[in-house]
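Table S7 (text form). Paired inputs.
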Amino acid sequence: MMKSDPAWAGYYRETEPSRRRQLLYQLVEQAPDDSANPLRIRLFELRHTDPQNPDHEIDRILWQCVSFIQVCASARFFRNRARKDVEASLSAIGYDEMSGYSDPGERAMYWEIRNGARRYFKTCSDSGYHRALFGLVSSSDYDRFRQMKKDVREMTVVLSERLRYFDRLRIWNQAVIDEYGLADPQGAAELRKEIPFV
């Protein structure tokens, strides 16, 4: 797990985009600069701003969690197409921009992805997640928890394996699995054993 600057802990815990925006600009002004503040602003804007309608808040990392599960399913037969989809998704959230900021950039990207995963896992705790019988029957807590672990495995381990992208998705995998580890430490440890670089 990557360490976060304590000054930024509240920002990365907060999942509501409008509140995060306020915290971001306060912290850029007040917190000690580790050289990654321009990247944090860029990551926030890429993640939450809809270019078609700037007043409409979106969450590209939340969408990426859902999308990567679907891409994983298609990657078994259409690896090249799946790679293009993953690369487009990574580009949309500024994944490669972290390299210009060294370690502080990797940490900023890691915590931004982890925040998106946190938001995704909040949706997984809703009774509407993984409904049975064509959405007519709510799933049990056990079924939702089991499905969440399956989803995490697919969007990290299986996707990386099918695309041969363990190194490329290193920060993504580490952030998602670490956030999942808050709910299921044993399950996260099992997933880490399946993935190199985490």
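Next pair, protein 2 of 2.
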Amino acid sequence: MLPPDTSPTEYAEAIIRSIPGSTTFLTVGSTAESREKRVHGGYTNNYVATLHHADGSEKVRVNLHEEWGAFTAAVDGEYWYTGNSRGDQQWVNMYDDQGLLIATMRPEAPSNWGAGWMDHAASLAAMTEPFSDTHVVYAEDVFWGRMIRYVTQIKLGDLSRSSGSFTW
């Protein structure tokens, strides 16, 4: 558990995930601003995902979509994921350690486009296959009583970073 945030942000974590092989950890929670904005009856909306340094200080924070219903998070040691569902829809977002959105995964054929809810904090599990560039995420679908498997392959060199400026 993180110590109370006495800054104007007033961050309060709801879910904490350790990251295998790392001193950093991931939380999903809310801020004073996000709690103030609660819409749709205040049902877990306006949450933020925060990657922390070992001492608990913030490394990067990502605002999650304001209309999402249920939230969960998972890590595979290289990337971190947020899962969410609302109605018959389900999304899994994949981020790097700088908070950059790498991929958004959604069900398609053969799972029939819709998916049920991820209804609790342990609704998502992630792993990297050993000696591989394959990242696997399993997401709960309580409506249909199944797990949906999402697979992403990121080969060395697929993602690159650069510095400087560019024009659109």
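Residues 12-153 form one domain.
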